[in-house]
Amino acid sequence: MSSENPxxxxxxxVKTLIQRPRRLRRTPGLRSMVRENQLTVDDLIYPMFVMxxxxxxxxxxxxxxxxxxxxxxxxxxxxxxxxxxxxxxxLFPLIPEAKKDDVGTESxxxxxxxxxxxxxxxxxxxxxxxITDVALDPFSIHGHDGIVDDNGVILNDxxxxxxxxxxxxxxxxxxxxxxxxxxxxxxxxxxxxALDAAGYFNVSILAYSAKYASSYYGPFRDALDSAPKFGDxxxxxxxxxxxxxxxxxxxxxxAEGADIVMVKPALAYMDIIYQIKSTTNLPVAAYNVSGExxxxxxxxxxxxxxxxxxxxxxxxxxxxxxxxxxxxxxxxEVALMLL
Length: 339
Ligand code: PBG
Hints:
Oligomer: single chain
CATH superfamily: Aldolase class I
Bound molecules: ligand PBG
Structural class: alpha/beta
Radius of gyration: 22 Å
CATH class: Alpha Beta
Strand content: 15-25%
Number of domains: 1
Shape: globular
CATH topology: TIM Barrel
Strand order of the largest sheet: 1-4-5-8-9-10-11-12
């Protein structure tokens, strides 16, 4: 009896079983043949943080292994990850306090940090897909994604006007894809119209369609110093208890012109990814957010889990749920693992 066959039974104990699922799990070759989902480097989008200055990178304490880079070092890093096969980066800026105001004016400055960064990336690594975030939080003194009135209400339509300017200025700088992460109503349609009117009909929209008011964003807000100064984001981001509402948001974003729809966060929202995948033929993205990253890093640092295996299992499960694309701070580590 072969020891390579863990399903061998002693002759006396063998029963007739028509189905023995273990037959196809017996060897690595068989398991590969019937594997239903495969994580590849093509699935990955790398979110990266950029800051003003030169020759500096600062590790984000709640996201070990993740850095804010000055533009020069960011370009070096992007060259490296591009060589590893990563196709796309999503940019997030740390805006100096002095440039923040209550309406996010800096967000559409043609010479702003994001715009300069996009131009420089496109020059240095033209093939990398550059995705820019469209929301006011890194640019506003109060840390909300929109314009706030005297009563603390986040105003929808005036915010959309600013988002439109921001998206067009990012397209002007050379962004391949703009990604509204703000959850204002009607912003996808307004941005699509404005991009087309400005001649950027080939710039695509990655819509944060089902973005939840989640506590998993904490480390990201540390990274950008963008935590809301008052209140929370529950009047615009979705209630964690809702699923049908996510389908409604997706439907609206598609009708308004989204090219890719996204669910954020990912891990606690796998049912949402699954349901959205079964209702649309557009590519579906999932955002493996900062808190999900931090939890794995923290447990790994304690020696409580096998980091590499848990990363691969987690991201593969997102694919299984239906994600075609995954925004993840693990992108570089995964690319190295998959080499
Ligand atoms: C803000 C934005 C957030 C993230 C991406 N864009 C934070 C928020 O909504 O407060 C979070 C990403 C992460 O946690 O990794 N528009």
